[in-house]
Each structure stands twice: as C-alpha cells, then as structure tokens.
Amino acid sequence: MGASQTRAEHQYQDLADKTGFSFEQIKNLYQRFQQLSGNEETISRANLDSIPALANNPIRKQIIGAFFDKRNQHQDEVGSCDQIGFEQFLMVMSHFRPPNLRTTDEEKEAMRKEKLRFLFNMHDSDNDGTITLAEYRKVVEELMSKSGEIGQETAKAIADAAMLEVASINVPNMGPEEFYEGITFEHFEEILKGLEMESRMHIRFLDVDTSTMRCGKSQS
C-alpha cells in the first residue's frame, strides 16, 4: 500500500509540475474525468458531446475538438486523437487556469499567450497555422445563424466583411489583386491586444469553475 501511495504521489507531482495545478485540484479533476468517462481510462468525443450544458452551445463542435487537438495537449505534433487519457485532459484544462497573486508579469504574459494559442487553434481547424476565410466563416455562421435571428447568407456576409477589415489592418498596403491568405497567430495576437485574457477563460460546462482553480489550495 505504501509503494502504491508513493507511485501516486510521484504521478501527481509530475502532473502538478506540468500543469500548475495542486494535488487537491488534480484529485478533483480526476473525479470529474471518471464521471465523464464512466470510470474508463479514456474519454471520447461522445462523452463530451453528451454533456447537457453543451447541448445548445453554438461552437460545441469546436470546444469538444479542442480537447482532442494534440496542439492543446502540449505535444510537439499536430493532428487529433479519438480518445484522450487523464493526463491529456489535464493538459487541456491547464489552459483555463487563471493567475494568482504570486504570478509574475512574465508568467502572466506566458499564460496569456498560451490561452490565445488555444483560441487560435480552435479556429485553425486544419492545423496549417492560419485562420482562413473559410474557417472564419464557419465559426461566424455557427455563432450567428443558430440563434435563429439571422440567416446563413447574412452571417456569411458579416464574416466576409470582418475578414476584409482584419486584412486591411494586418496588411494595410495590400493591392486590389492581392489575396489575403488568412489570420496568422501574430495577427491574432495583434487583434486581441489589450484584451484581458488571463482570467477570463472559464469552462463551467464541465461543472468545474476554473475561476477558483488557482495555484495552491482550491478556493472555497
């Protein structure tokens, strides 16, 4: 029993070092992982797709896909998985952990960049490092047309106009015959410059309020 506990502590320490979560937070997230997976060792897209709180979310597909995107699991590769284990799940969840009072400015900047990269990856569905007009249209159409208040063609026109505006900002001297390939991560950072991201990304649909998931002990 002592050896088993020691192995568990080593495993938790490794996960804590990788994610910044405390042992208590890792334990709580493991319990939620077990609930979602039905006590299995991995979670599938179907497990997340069955979460009631996600049912009416217009970008449900992108949110679920983000968990299975290898780029969001701190892996040095691209592509997606059909199943993820607890460590991969925890790596994705670490993107939603806000800073605390002890977080340095340098660490805050790194966290902000990581969160922006996560959001960028959600839009860059083909993993080519650029959010194309087609990808941007898809997200805007899903966000706007599913509300029932606006048609798909209108949503498409709004997406096209927005992308044209982005192009004029990022490539101000672009000629009339030039084609804007899409939003790079550097462009994406510039677009969202000044927006406070460090503590605004939450993931409450998993019944986990990440605004309380700070380093050290969980907040009551």
Automatic annotation (TrEMBL):
The keyword Cell membrane is annotated on this UniProt entry: yes
PROSITE patterns: EF_HAND_1, EF_HAND_2
Disulfide bond recorded as keyword: no
Alphabetic keyword roster: Calcium, Cell membrane, Cell projection, Cytoplasm, Differentiation, Lipoprotein, Membrane, Metal-binding, Myristate, Nucleus, Protein kinase inhibitor
Positions of the EF-hand domain: 111-146
GO cellular component: cytoplasm; lamellipodium; nucleus; ruffle membrane
Membrane topology designation: Lipid-anchor
Gene Ontology molecular functions: calcium ion binding; protein kinase inhibitor activity
SUPFAM superfamilies found in the cross-reference section: EF-hand
GO BP of this protein: cell differentiation
Protein origin, superkingdom: Eukaryota
Location within or outside the cell: Cell projection, Lamellipodium; Cell projection, Ruffle membrane; Cytoplasm; Membrane
Family: Belongs to the calcineurin regulatory subunit family. CHP subfamily.
Protein's recorded name: Calcineurin B homologous protein 3
